[in-house]
Amino acid sequence: MVAGHLREKNGTFQIVLSFNDALGNRKTKSISTGLPIKGNKKRAEALLMEARQNFDNGVSGDSKNNPKNILFTEFMLEWLEMMKNSVEITTYANYAMVIKSRINPYFRDKGLTLSELTPKHIQDYYLYSLNVEKVSANTVIHRHANIRKALQYALKLGLIDFNPADRVERPKKNKYVATTYNEKELENLFSVVKGKRIEFAVTLGAFYGLRRSEIVGIKWDAIDFERKTFTIKHTVTEVMLDGKVTMIDKERTKTKSSHRTLPLVKPFEELLLRMKVEQETNRRVCGSAYCRKYLDYIYVNELGELVRPNFITQNFAIVLANNKLKKIRFHDLRHSCASLLYAHGVSLKEIQEWLGHSDISTTSNIYTHLDYSSKVSSANAILSVFPT
Description:
Blueprint: E1 3-9, E2 12-20, E3 26-36, H1 41-60, H2 72-83, H3 89-108, H4 119-131, H5 137-156, H6 183-193, H7 199-206, H8 212-217, E4 223-224, E5 229-232, E6 235-241, E7 244-250, E8 260-263, H9 266-286, H10 309-322, H11 332-343, H12 348-355, H13 360-366, H14 372-383
Antiparallel strand pairs: 1-2, 2-3, 4-5, 5-8, 6-7
C-alpha cells in the first residue's frame, strides 16, 4: 500500500501520500481533509487509510494512475524535468524548446499513452515535420534523438516493452555545403564593416575563424599586448529558458582543443586599442547609467551591455543586404577562414589547431572540398606514367 501520514496545517488535518512517479522519482501528494485538529484524529486516520487504499488500487489497476498509462506528452515533460539536473543548461534548453514547442503540441491532441505509442505514430510525426512544417531532415533527426532518448529511459523503467523509436526510419541527413567568401569578397566585407559594431565580430570570424560564443566571451585578460597573443578560454551562449532569452557564460570552451592561443596581428591589435579607448570614454560620458556588470568583457555596446550572440547573426545579415554583398551565414566566415588558409598552403592539421577542432577528422569531414587541389596533383602524377 502507498505510504502516507497526517500532518497539521492551518488548524486542520492534511493527508500526505508518498509514492514513486512514472520515472521512479519519489513524489508526495497533499489532500486536505477539512477536519479541525481538535477531536477529529480518528476520523482523519480513517480518511488517510481510505486515501491510501484508493490510490493504491488506482496505481495497480487499469486506471489513468497506472504508470504505464501515463500520457506520452506528460512523460516527455517528466523526463525533461529529470534531465534538468543531468545535462548542461544549454543542452537542457535545447531539449525544452524541442519538446515543449514542437513534439508535445503535435502529440497533445492525440491523447496517446506510453503503451499506445507505436512506431507508426512517430513515423507520421516525422513526415508531418518534413512535409507540413517544412523543416530540414537534420532538424527531424535532432527531434528523433530527443524522443528516442526519453523512450529509452521509459524502457529502462519497465514502462514500455520496447522502444518504438528504434523501429522508425530516420530521414537521410543533409550535408551542408558552406558558401564562402574569397579574398576579394572578404576585403570588401572588411571595408563595409569598418567602424561599425559588427566589425569586431567579422574580424574574429573571418580572420581567426572564431565561433559566436568565443567572440562574445573574450575578456580583456585574454589579451597579451606584450607577447602579441590572445587566448580563447571563455564562452558566452544565448538560450531560450522558461520563455526568456538567457545568456550562459562558461569559464571554458566548447572542447579542450577549442582552448587555444592565437597571434595578435596588427590590424586586430589596433581595433582592440580603439575599442578600449571608446569604452573608457563611454564610461565617463554615461556615468552611473553605464552597465558595470561586463567591465571584463571586450564586446560591449555604448552603455556597457554585453553584445548578444544573436545580435551578431541578425546584424551581419542586415549589413550584407544593405550593401548588396553575397548572402552567407555568419558561421560561414569560419569556413571562409579555413578555405583561405588552405589556399595559402596551410595544412589541414594546422587548420584544425587554428579553428580549435578536437580531431583532424572533424576538419577533414567539414572541409573535404579543400582536398581537391591535392587530388588534382595526384592525378597529374599518375597521368605522367601513361603513354601519350
